[in-house]
Amino acid sequence: MTLDTTPFGAPARVISVSGDGAVALRLMQMGVVPGVAVSVVKSAPLGDPIQVRIRDYDLALRRIEAQTITVAFDNE
Amino acid sequence: MNALLEQLPSQSSSSQTRPLQKPLTIAVAGNPNAGKTSLFNALTGLRQKVANYPGVTVERKEGLWSLAPDSPAARVIDLPGLYSLEATSVDEQIARDVLLGREANIARPDVVIVAVDTTNLVRNLYLFTQLMETECRLVVALTMFDLAERSNLKINVEKLSKGLGVPVVPVMARQRRGIDRLAEAVLKVAAETSDPCPTLSNGSVNHVQRWQTEATSSRTSAAKNNTRPQPLFASDLVITSAQTWQTRLIDRYRWIENVVAGAVFAETARKHSATERIDALVTHRIAGPVILFLVMLLVFQTIFSWANLPMNLIDRVFNVLADAVRAHLPAGMLTDLIVSGIIPGVGGVLMFLPQIVLLFFFITVLEDSGYMARAAFLMDRLMRGVGLHGKAFVPLLSSFACAVPGIMATRTIENPKDRVATIMIAPFMSCSARLPVYTLMIAAFFSGQKVIGFISLGALIILAMYLLGIAFAVVVAWVLKHTLLKAPSPPFVMELPPYRLPNPRNVAHSLLARVGVFLKRAGTVILAISILLWALVAFPRGPVSTTEGAIDNGAGYASVQVENSYAGQAGRLIEPLIKPLGFDWKIGVGLISSFAARETVISTLSIVYNVGENPGEGSASLIKAIRNAKRSDGSLVWTPLVALSLMVFFVLACQCMSTVAVVRRETNSWRWPLFMVCYMLLLAYVSSFVTYQGGRLLGFT
């Protein structure tokens, strides 16, 4: 499941970030790394961008960027 | 290693550092929103200065910090915030270059204070791991420490320090707590003569040793080949596969997680912070945009009405000054230059100061509080439809008051092409200087008429002018992004920082710095242009008047002078060009003079029509003069259609030297400002043409 289709509020973990371009670099620098706790908080009024909680802080990103992040539900 | 760590944290100041002989250079680095600036302000107080890094428009903030009574004050540099040394924006590149000693004119910092936001430790430490690989001596300052503790985080500072291998000092910049201990740590670290690579506890040796070995080998091989040693950062590496840099990056985060896990404990589950509660409203699907609208309305209202009082005050002061000078200095060229050139010129710029100060104030408060990020979040979808970045919203909106601070606010847009596109269209947002022109035209030709009952035609026309500007801005942005400024959309990825109450001291500092820069730059250019314009109107000298006082109120002399001057000749020269727009040579003179600053068209027109020098936009006499102006064949020069045509011209033309100066500064070349003036002039001409001729075709006069 990718981050742009993750339901709001569901706790999840990052599995991987695809791509090796500017987007992937930026995301990973900001802490979107395998294993990190992530959840989607909400979307902007027009549906895009989305607000995501990564570990300890909030990140806003466009859905097309969120698509590169593969996540899985956190079952712990 | 243990000797170093045992001296931390020092309760008693028994540090064994010897007093410094020469002043230190200290850089403060850290993530955006990590409290760097508060820390910097706490260290340097009022001993700051703001300049520019050569060749770019990144602000360079430096100050002096007295570390200890017996040492010379250290030079502290507040670096732009950066998430990583793999810089993706100009700001970050500058920060990186300074840290690595690559920036010309700035010596490699002796010590780097890494400001780390305690409430967001892991991500903030990413930069630290990169800095560890460089030759910098590091000290970590834990900012927002009190906030972290209040949210039930228990931080063992000693363990953290041991894990990271450098001194760690909690600071609370607002209360100025921890500063002394920070000074001690800095002195200690600076006095070390040993290898700057920090020593680390056992668990972390593997990773860092590997990095250090690689860093050292890259340095030695570079030394052998006589090339600059390359730091080992993703974008600087020759990337052999996606795996290489991703693995390294993930390694860093694993290391950080390890260290933090050993030193930080979250006692209870995180409760909903105030930020979350506020955001429930601020980024709500419906409440969000409404609140944004209200905030913007407040900003505008303030700028348009509250600024009036100080503006009028300044205006009056300059009038008084002009009168005083005229009264006390002998009549002649110099007096005239001062009274009709310098004073109105400088006064014209200074008159806008209250608006600009207010606008900068709001922008700073919105940025510092964290609201700006939410505004970009809400507006991104719309802006993107036009090809702009969400962060362009506030700068563009600010340009409705004055394009100068609006354009300066585009610095938050990281991608240079997006930024230039935003700068190019900012002047289309009808700024407050256009308002006097609109007001004059409407008072002269559209007053008193109502549409749909109570809405006045005048208000509707003003609204139409604003919308026209916006429409053109949208189109031009789209065109630019698809032609000249074509570029793949850069990542939007943007942090939404926790809401914070802006620190008044920070805001004041920021305000003073930015306003100072505006005054200096725009002021000098405007002054020069005003003098030039004055000269164009004053020369060549017309027939000598018998009355004393070269340019006087009223009197046909002034009008004759204008007609014979260079400006007047220029007006006549372009008359055939502007006739299709409905303008005659007198309006032409006004147009020419308005290119320095829009509002001057009013004073120029009043001179040309013999009304006197400082009429103000509602001047009854000017309105009367305009309404009655006749051509040689008896037909009226000014009609409502001509007024409309003029307004359209003013909506679209770039008539502001301050804007040109700021664009030059922000884009660092003359190409863009020149391009902007030209294409806007073209658009203005064509639109004015269409308005006038189209109106004629439709039967209006």
Describe this entry's structure for a reader.
Chain A has 76 residues and is α+β, with helices and mostly antiparallel strands. Chain A has one domain (3-73): Ferrous iron transport protein A (FeoA) (SH3 type barrels, Roll). In chain A, 16% of the residues lie in helices and 37% in strands. Chain A contains two helices and five strands. Chain A has a five-stranded antiparallel β-sheet. In chain A, a hairpin with a 6-residue loop joins strand 2 (37-43) and strand 3. The longest helix of chain A is centred in the middle third of the chain and has 8 residues, at 22-29. In chain B, helix 12 (308-328) runs antiparallel to helix 13 and helix 18 runs antiparallel to helix 20 (457-482). Chain B is elongated and about 90 Å long. By secondary structure, chain B is α/β, with parallel strands linked by helices. The longest helix of chain B has 35 residues, at 504-538. Helix content of chain B is 58%, strand content 8%. Chain B starts with a helix and ends with a helix. Among the domains of chain B are: 2-266, Rossmann fold, CATH 3.40.50.300; 527-697, no CATH class. Chain B has 29 helices and twelve strands. In chain B, strand 10 (450-451) and strand 11 (455-456) form a beta hairpin. The A-B interface holds A 17, 19-20, 22-31, 33-34, 36, 42, 44-49, 51, 54-62, 65 and B 83-84, 86, 88, 119-123, 126, 234-235, 239, 242, 245-246, 249-250, 253, 275, 279, 283, 285-286, 288-289, 373, 376-378, 380-382, 384, 390, 490-498.
